[in-house]
Structures are given as structure tokens and as C-alpha cells.
Design brief:
The chain is built from 4 helices and 4 strands; from the N terminus they run H-H-H-E-E-H-E-E. The protein is mainly alpha-helical. The protein has a two-stranded antiparallel ribbon with strand order 1-2. Helix 2 runs antiparallel to helix 3. The chain is elongated, with a radius of gyration of 24 Å.
């Protein structure tokens, strides 16, 4: 829903400043909701890969809650700071033109990147731990064919 609205707000030639503010609120909260859902799915995947460990569950719930709370605070603060104005006459900009914005909005993306890096580290850690502890099950078996020798892992 947020992508068509974003395209509309950026490409409509004659858009009122009031419409820009309303569209930006809907778009920003739509992106925030998408980030929350993607983070939740990654947290569930990580939790499942850790065999539903209670310690990982507590860690993921606390981390997810803290990150989402900070994202909501940053999003609310940055939305209040936006000011729109008409585009400069020499610019070829159409649609909404933001003249003032907070620099804190990049904090949202930094938080999400750190959160996803933690998920990635946990997934890699359990993957390596599983391979090392079950190395005997991954011994290569060579299959001779007429043209190639294939290595298959059982």
C-alpha cells in the first residue's frame, strides 16, 4: 500500500502541501509496519532454527520490543519535523518537496540493520554449531558415473 502512495506523492504534478503531510504520515507508518512484520518473521525463523530455545525466545522478544519501540519514537519525532514547500522554480521536481527534515530518520534504518545483523549472526552460529557437532553425518560419498564423479553429502 505504501509504494503506490509514495509514487503518487512523488509524481503528481499539482499536489497540495496538506496532502503531502497526510500522504507522508500514511507512507511512513506503512513502512514502519512492514519493518515490524519483516523483523517478526526473521525472529520467528531464528527462534525455530534454535529449536525453540527458551533463552533465545526471551532474547529475541526483548530485542524486538526495544527496537520497535525505538523505531516508533524515531518515526514520530521525525514526522513532526518535516516541512513541505513548493519546489524551487528551476528544479524539475514534481510532487511533494520536503524543505526541512530531521536527520534522526536514518536512525530507523540503523536500528533495523543492527537487528537483522543479530538475526544473521544467530542463524550462522547455530548453523556452524550444527555442522561441527554432526560432522560425521556430512561425510562425502563419491558416486561414479560414466562422465563425472559426483560428491554427494548424506
Amino acid at each position: 500500500m505504501d509504494v503506490p502512495l509514495l509514487l503518487y506523492s512523488l509524481l503528481k504534478p499539482q499536489i497540495s502541501l496538506d496532502q503531502c503531510v497526510r500522504l507522508n504520515y500514511v507512507i511512513s507508518w506503512g513502512v514502519t509496519f512492514g519493518i515490524m512484520m519483516a523483523g517478526g518473521i526473521l525472529a520467528l525463523q531464528t527462534y525455530a532454527l534454535w529449536a525453540c530455545s527458551k533463552q533465545i525466545k526471551i532474547f529475541l522478544v526483548v530485542q524486538y520490543t526495544v527496537v520497535i519501540a525505538l523505531v516508533i519514537i524515531i518515526n514520530t519525532t521525525s514526522l513532526r519535523s518535516y516541512r513541505y514547500g513548493p519546489p524551487l522554480p528551476m528544479m524539475v521536481t514534481v510532487g511533494c518537496y520536503r524543505i526541512v527534515e530531521s536527520k534522526i530518520v536514518s536512525g530507523d534504518f540503523v536500528l533495523v540493520m543492527v537487528q537483522e545483523a543479530v538475526y544473521m549472526a544467530l542463524v550462522l552460529w547455530i548453523g556452524m554449531k550444527t555442522i561441527v557437532t554432526h560432522a560425521a553425518f556430512y561425510s562425502p560419498i563419491f558416486i561414479e558415473t560414466g562422465y563425472h564423479t559426483l560428491s554427494v553429502y548424506s
